[in-house]
Amino acid sequence: MPSAWIISIGNELLIGRVVNTNAAWLARKLTYLGYQVRRIVVVPDDEAEIVAAFREALSKADLVVSTGGLGPTPDDITNLAAAKALGVDAVLDETAKEWVLEKYRQRGYQATPERLKMAYIPRGAKPLYNSAGVAPGIWAEQGGKILLILPGVPKEMEAIFEEQAEPLLRARGPGLCFAEDSFYLAGVPEADLSPILREALKIDERIYVKSHPKGHETGAPLEEIHIYGSAGNCDEARNLVAKVRQFLVDEIWRRFPQAKLTPQPQSG
Amino acid sequence: MPSAWIISIGNELLIGRVVNTNAAWLARKLTYLGYQVRRIVVVPDDEAEIVAAFREALSKADLVVSTGGLGPTPDDITNLAAAKALGVDAVLDETAKEWVLEKYRQRGYQATPERLKMAYIPRGAKPLYNSAGVAPGIWAEQGGKILLILPGVPKEMEAIFEEQAEPLLRARGPGLCFAEDSFYLAGVPEADLSPILREALKIDERIYVKSHPKGHETGAPLEEIHIYGSAGNCDEARNLVAKVRQFLVDEIWRRFPQAKLTPQPQSG
Questions:
Q1: How far are the Cα atoms of A225, A268, B13, B50, B106 from residue B45, in angstroms, in the given order?
Q2: What is the pLDDT of residues B78-130, one digit of tens each?
Q3: Element (H or E) spanning A223, and its range?
Q4: Model confidence at A267, in pLDDT bands (50, 70, 90)?
Q5: Residue A253 burial (CB count, 10 A)
């Protein structure tokens, strides 16, 4: 199963001023595209840290997706750091330059070095049009690996991903289908579920089961049981998830006749 | 300035099912305690990955804080992985065992291997009482580094941090004070702010300035300008932030007399 790493760039994430919703959004997208996201790494606006994170990610994962650091201010250095990590020059891309300057021109703004900076991309890479803002995304390939660079503003990140990157990834991607299901279980402490989960995990290595405690382990035990995994096609993935779910329900009721199973958490 | 890494453990974060609010909460706490959070790393429920992440973090940071993987289910392996990373055995801690079993005993539950698993900690480490759940946190020290291990359930993570870990960190911590301020700026594209931010960043290396675009760069430009940093005492930190803020306001008004500055974003 092809692997992906997500690199989130920005001091605001490391001082806890911003919650990293971008990484969760991308993780979900990549999972559904058939990638196994193995790591999310948050690094500061520091060139050496960004270059090191890109290099490590490219050595470990098939796909690396970054967010942040593509704007016009002095701490926006992701395009230059990416070029360093890839071992190539950053060059002014004519297409990206036209996109960037046209957006400013429409409002009567001139070209400045800060604006042009956003049109630099690693040599050999391809700019991705930003329909929701100015800074283009970047698509680079090297040694069979893909590096996808997106802005940090969520609506711009999402627009470039969905309009530009997702079709490319779908065409080039692993062709796996992800499926999932979940239910809530009340009245059984998580510790007592453990042997059942252990058996369920043995049914098929493509399917994973995880319980998430939502109540109080010894007071009012409540868990969300989440079953998920990917297979070669969607029917197979759904059938595997259904099979594991059936096993779990049967075993829980066999061992804990007082257990309450519901599709959503219920009070009482 | 002492550095910290945050290690978030859990497949649910890597499939985008859960947004990593724990990391943001901890990042803010650690920043205010005077630590510079240099990296957040999210890893799956996989022993080799957790051990590798702990080892790398302990080699790079003064303080490592993890969340997740302390419960009673088969994928909860953080206490054992931490022992491996530290190169010591995981041992049944008598204090932790008493805490765990007492919580189950109060509700009429017996001791089982899954319940006792939560009382294992790396040899030489210290358990931290969990007032909001069962699984204790862990405080370990090695070679001058601190490893703080917390559960993934937010209310349990926050309870152990605030009641047990924060007093220890405050007593042992760097003794720096963090300060911050921010304002909103409408009517100036972020690209045109860039030279002013560059100058502001030179005023004092302890203070950082970052602009966060909230509007549309060429349509209706709106930025939040955030000024922050740490100094030896709180007065000094606040004064440095105020000085940089004053410089920014003066320079923005000098160069852009039409700029609108507000404490909060305003429509129109």
A1: 16, 32, 10, 7, 31
A2: 999 999 999 999 999 999 999 999 999 988 888 899 899 999 999 999 999 99
A3: strand A222-231
A4: low
A5: 12
Domain spanning B177-262 has what CATH number? 3.30.70.2860
Ranges of each domain in chain A: 3-172, 177-262
Least Cα distance to A66 among B106, A190, A52 occurs for A52
CB A54 within 8 A of CB A7: yes
Instruction: Tell me if A3-172 shares its fold with A177-262.
Output: no
Distance (Å, whole) CA A148 – CA A57: 12
Fold that domain B3-172 belongs to in CATH = Molybdenum Cofactor Biosythetic Enzyme; Chain A (3.40.980)
Question: Chain A contact for B133, CB < 8 A?
Answer: yes
Q: Which residues of A are less than 8 Å from B194 in CB distance?
A: 72-74, 114
ipTM of the complex: 0.94
Q: Which residues pair with B228 in a beta bridge?
A: B180, B208
Query: 69-88 in A: which are within 8 Å (CB) of B?
Result: 71-75
Closest-approach residue (CA) in chain B for A101: B218
